[in-house]
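SEQUENCE, STRUCTURE TOKENS:
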Amino acid sequence: MLEHVLTRALLALVTVGLSLPMLFQQQVLAARADTESLGGPGRSLTFISTDKPLYRPGEQVMARGLVLEARAHTPLAHQVLAHVEVRGPKGDVVTSARVLSEHSVWGYSWTVPGDMAGGEYTLSVSYPYTGDAPAERKFDVRAYRAPRLKSQIEFLRDGYGPGDTVTATLDVKRAEGGVPSGARVTATALVDGVTAAQVTGVVDARGLCTVSFKLPGQIERGEGSLAFAIADGGVVETAAKTIPILLRTLDLTLYPEGGDLVAGLPSRVYFQALTPAHKPADLSGAVIELATGRVVAPVRSEHEGRGRFELTPKAGVKYALRIDEPSGIGEPFPLPEVKARGAVLRASEDVIPAGQPVVLSVGLSGVKQAKLTLSQREVELASSLVDPDEKVILDPKGADGVLIATVWDADGRPLAERLVFRQPAQALSIEVKTNKPRYVPGEQVELTARTTRGGKPVPALVMLTVTDDAVLELIEKRDQAPQLPVMVLLEPEVKELADAQIYFDEKNPKAKRAVDLLLGTQGWRRFALADAEQFVTRHGDPARRALAIRVPPPPPPPEAMPPAAPAIGGWRFPRPCRFRRPRQSPRPRRLPRP
């Protein structure tokens, strides 16, 4: 009989992404997932990046994988042999290779054939000899022309209904640098194939042009687009984006902080709203008592269609969220049932400052005493007994990133859980200098990288990618791949990571709230009794990555594996140094059978 494991590593995957909202209510003693049951110490996760988000047929895709210890995020002390595949838009494998890591980094390159079909491709990596968790990154193949003007379109809101006023801002820069100040702009809005508005404007000194127009009062299909034509001297280019129109349809999910609404306990509820196309939808409205219509709390989304509100639910009362904007959504969305007994868990801050303890508020109803633990993955870092309505201070010591706070009853059953984020204390500063201020096409560029911590030089693994930033602007900002810190610290803990540039932006005042809203929705947790092997068998690679589980399969015969590809990355810089051509990695060696 297979051992049953209480899966606690990423319950967002269990309940949000995979629809298993079963509370842990069985009177069954279960073994909590521990390091050994998940594959032993030293388990790793891989973080993939490509040099560009899209490629023309005939261009070379350059990819890099950083392999880190799953909990401490430290480089591995040994080499790993990885199996890389590129799958086409239909899921078929178009090429594959073996790559060997060097200094915890492996590199891979592939030239897109000239006759390759356009569409979305997936580069995936697995570890057949060690069984570590797989990873993947998507990129596009299509014919395109590098733009002379770099442009992005941002709507004031992420959702509009019939009759609403749409406001959009065009942000445009010249590819060679500078702002096309004074450039004439014509914005044309199409709704259901018919021109709904045409507005003109001028690019200001900051490179911005804002336009507003009103949507028709009657919309049938809700297919809308906004196109900007920019005339900068002799250069005329266009930029377009879909208008997020909502017609009486909205996918709204509500997430009580900690897991449940409990009668008489002040609670915070997170929510996420999506369009039928699974894009974020902004909303405003109110929480009401269903029976009386009395307004309990105002509601407004803040980032990516996500927001939160507070209420103290009453026993026997049913609540619902009424949508006022966008217009046309008549039926309110019911809140989860109010429980008579349970626990409520609240974080005191959106983001825990570096080096500071984690402060949590615990509310209990029908529970005399409970225990609060702070963990990172399956490893417990700190704990404390708590009494009802008590603030608890826990010190996770040197741990940072995403931490798991859990309330347990006296019998060891979990009552509430949420994720919190603690800023890393060991911030690394990277300075990159060029040997000249400007270059002409075809000229040799020399870069010097210097890594410091607290102003003092430190050894570090430095990885650089050089590409045309005008190509990056061809992808919407929210769909661009996350940078490495966000990729390592947040991506494994959530189901979907979009608009990733905001989360660690120190200059953005909304960054910390955006992190909390992400973890309160995409990282929301409930409890399920699950067999680890069956869980992985059912949900595949996402489950393996969520748990950072190591499941070593038998290695394939050597003749079944494609030839190894040379590594193209992975240098170690103990002091400031100049870049040189990378040497070839050693020939892949056969690893021992696990």
The radius of gyration is 26 Å. Residues 143 and 360 are 52 Å apart (CA to CA). The first strand starts at residue 5 and ends at 6. The longest helix spans residues 511-521.
